[in-house]
Amino acid sequence: MAGAGLWYDVAMHILFFALGAIVASFVGVIVARLNTGQGFLTGRSRCDACDAPLAPGTLIPIVSYVISGARARCCGARICAYAPLTELLLGGLFALAYLRLGLTPSLFFMLLSLSLLLALVLYDLAHQILPPTLLAAFVGASAVAGFFIAQSPARFFDSMLTALLLSFFLALIHFISRGRAMGFADAPLALGLALLVGPAAFPGFVFSFWIGAVVGIALLAGRPRGFRMKSEVPFAPFLAAGFLLAYFTQWNPFIFIAALP
Questions:
Q1: pLDDT tens digit string along 181-210?
Q2: Is the Cα dihedral 235, 236, 239, 240 positive or negative?
Q3: Number of other residues whose CB lies within 10 A of the CB of residue 115
Q4: How far apart are CA 130 and CA 34, in angstroms?
């Protein structure tokens, strides 16, 4: 019986990983077509190099990229690893979410929030802006997920206060710097992330700035001529990485800070 339970858990993790990879592939289509006038459910996907329609067999998440040797079958052009990496990422996050929450109502809203978060991050990386519609949907889904995860109105109320405080802090940075240090949309994004991760919000906030500092220093060290940090490094990916790192690992940076002499 124990062996059967183990195989069941393995199968469920594989299932959720595959689901996450499939959703990531669809999210990539949404991000690429958003605000372009193209439909999300209609129209064929095309090769970025030669614009040829892609066959269904070339659109299997991760698998098609590996089998093709990172080359387009239609023209032989090299395929960017961007798409399979996002599929691996969301697949892993879906599996971790199942591991942490199990088959509960909160899991559905957590997966929805993670999918919307990926769309926001990808769009921000491509256009340095967070679409208001996606942002509102993410905050709403995160609020519902956070309510179910908190398991009591009192705990959710505490999470709400923390989320509002962190969001206000980022909005304050935006207004004081007149938008040079941070975009205003980062404030509602932090609100949704804090609602989603609950007690891990403050650690996640700290991790976000640490990750941003490390990446920023690395980019500045090897910056090309004319590099501008504000326009080329959006903060949304750092916020997402920091909050999710704190939630799924439960690491608390305040413990390390307190241990310093």
A1: 788 899 999 999 999 999 999 999 999 999
A2: negative
A3: 22
A4: 12
